[in-house]
Amino acid sequence: MTLHSTVAAVTGRIRERSAGPRGAYLERLDRMANRPPGLQRLGCANVAHAVAGLPTNDKLRIVEEKKPNIGIVTSYNDVLSAHAPLGRYPDILRDEARRQGANAQVAGGVPAMCDGVTQGTAGMELSLFSRDTIALGTAVGLSHDTFDAALMLGVCDKIVPGLLIGALHFGHVPTVFVPAGPMPSGLSNTEKARVREQAAQGLVGRPELLAAEMAAYHSPGTCTFYGTANSNQMLLEAMGLHVPGTAFVNPGEPAREELTREAVRTALAITRGQRFTPIGRVVDERCIVNAMVALLATGGSTNHLIHWVAVARSAGIAIDWDDFSELSAVVPLLARVYPNGVADVNGFQGAGGPGYVIRELLDAGLMHEDVLTVRAGGLREYTRVPELGQDGKLRWSDPGASRDESILRPVASPFSPTGGLKLLRGNLGRSVIKISAVPADRHVIEAPARVFDSQGELLEAFHAGELDRLCEGNGAGGLVCVVRWQGPRANGMPELHKLTPPLAVLQRKGWRVALVTDGRMSGASGNVPAAIHVSPEAYAGGPLAKVRDGDMVRLDADAGVLEVLLDEHQWQARPPAQMPEAQLQDNAHGLGRELFAGMRRNATSAEEGACAWL
């Protein structure tokens, strides 16, 4: 299939833009790869320290017999349901490595925090920067430099991007990512959202809300909605960094352990004597574009417009929001998964899952097939679904037609001809909006602004009835809620999920409402139009700091416009507001936020990846 002209053009532009840094990256990679393998490049005392804790047979295998040594970087903790299954993975991986005549060691552990636990709390202000902390932890673990390959154990929001950034800074090391799978379906996401909206209106109390939440999040495994965690897994499949089809197999399924063992076999197959494809070679500009296309085709998390900029940068590749927007215009939406539909990821998997999506995109010329992956069969292997035979061996087969076209559709009849992501530009800066779940009659909102300095202020105004009164009292019959001081440098750019229920309640009443913020929403705005990641952020001198209560704001997702409707001279002359000093000080203290002051100070903009390590 001929590659789509727009996909080819965007890829070519990225390749040309990245020629200098990518060339330097590959030169460094080759220099590292051409050293002696594993433990053979270390002095005797170094080797002795590295193997001192190993059983005698393992020492013999990797020191005397010079067999491969695999480093494991794990994000295990049992606070995260998605990562709880990872606790037993090192034993499985070590056992399989021994069976294959190799060795595996836990090189290090990295932190893993749950945005679901910290949502709406001060702890959430560490969330985005936990990504770079994870990257640093990955680097520390791999810096022992005793490994011939690596396995990355992680699933959730910032964990996978952090592991990926860290691994790409060791681009000479063959690397396979190992997930744990989603929890089985509990209370439906639709019912959960309904109860949340009832709670926002005071129609149900804490006991009812807690019961609903615990029925939705109820066992080990990833949360079942299609947020950042599950988008991570889709993108890793599209990049060819998993064992094919591993993403959405539940933790308790018989195939899960065998797929985990297959990760060891896959890593060991990537050797100098056979098919040496280290991660820095796998992740090139075509691989990055494939990930972007898969994100758009499935209506995935907007967080990846930040994370994948940083991931690409780690491999010497420069992408921006214009690239995402141009691809979105030609990539059809093939999946409807909550919050962009009713089904959860288990329904998505049952309908055909990542294999179906990748096959459709490849066959339509919307993804690069001529890429390296961790498997010898290339990306076409990722169009198949794994199953465990009665003999205990894995087999992969074509997913066939969609088993539920309310969840997955072919390219020939998509849910939408575009990916549902729009870049917004105007005198308020650059922003993105996810419109895949927003009704067409809400793509354009023009209404007076109500400016908030925090999400807490907006919630207080909602509960006091102020937002209803404002909507009712102006001729526009609506309101644009501007929440500023939420960018990387102001407070670490927390997600603002707590705002979704009240805004949805207002919209359900018939008011035309929208959110404009320099914070994150992860696509969880659902059917409420939300211009997010506004850059530059208000604290860094961005134009959101100029908005005043009552200013008419126009959010036009069709035309790609985000602007204040003021005379240009008047707008330019208006001085920006300053972040309240008390709020700035509060952001700097408590729950460890003092330790992240340097990251806040040094962070790049959201469009530049919100990187604290540059």
UniProtKB/TrEMBL annotation:
Binding positions ([4Fe-4S] cluster): 156, 223
Catalytic activity, EC: 4.2.1.12
Entry keyword annotation includes Glycosyltransferase: no
Domain Dihydroxy-acid/6-phosphogluconate dehydratase C-terminal: 407-610
Cofactor: how and how many bound: Binds 1 [4Fe-4S] cluster.
Single annotated GO MF: 4 iron, 4 sulfur cluster binding
Domain Dihydroxy-acid/6-phosphogluconate dehydratase N-terminal: from-to ranges: 67-381
A Gene Ontology biological process term: Entner-Doudoroff pathway through 6-phosphogluconate
Cofactor(s) the protein needs: [4Fe-4S] cluster
Pathway: Carbohydrate metabolism; Entner-Doudoroff pathway
InterPro entries in the record: 6-phosphgluc_deHydtase, Dihydro-acid_dehy_C, DiOHA_6PGluconate_deHydtase_CS, ILV_EDD_C, ILV_EDD_N, IlvD/EDD_N
Catalytic activity: 6-phospho-D-gluconate = 2-dehydro-3-deoxy-6-phospho-D-gluconate + H2O
Keywords tagged on the record: 4Fe-4S, Carbohydrate metabolism, Gluconate utilization, Iron, Iron-sulfur, Lyase, Metal-binding
This protein's GO CC annotations: cytosol
Similarity comment text for this entry: Belongs to the IlvD/Edd family.
PANTHER family found in the cross-reference section: D-XYLONATE DEHYDRATASE (PTHR43661), PHOSPHOGLUCONATE DEHYDRATASE (PTHR43661:SF1)
Role according to the record: Catalyzes the dehydration of 6-phospho-D-gluconate to 2-dehydro-3-deoxy-6-phospho-D-gluconate.
Protein name per Swiss-Prot or TrEMBL: Phosphogluconate dehydratase
Gene source species: Melaminivora alkalimesophila
Origin organism lineage: Bacteria, Pseudomonadati, Pseudomonadota, Betaproteobacteria, Burkholderiales
Gene name per UniProt: edd
